Amino acid sequence: YAVSFVDPGSNVTHNAALMLFFAKNFQNGGYTISGQGSDVDGNTIVEDGFLSRDGTAWWRERNITGDVGLQVLSRGRFDLRQHS
Asked: What is the value of pTM for the model shown?
């Protein structure tokens, strides 16, 4: 996925790339999210995340290069019918 975000410290918009994987979560009826990404702060791994059946999602990334240790909580919405 190609995404954009606003740095809260500088109010500057940056682009990022995410490769997300979705695994069916039979207990909650949605999907767990894992994956990796890269942006101006470095490379990340998705350590935790969840996508509900209505398309709302959250995921937590941790930087493994660049600003090592930085953690970001993101949220979004996926159109499950259009696969986007």
From this structure: 0.86
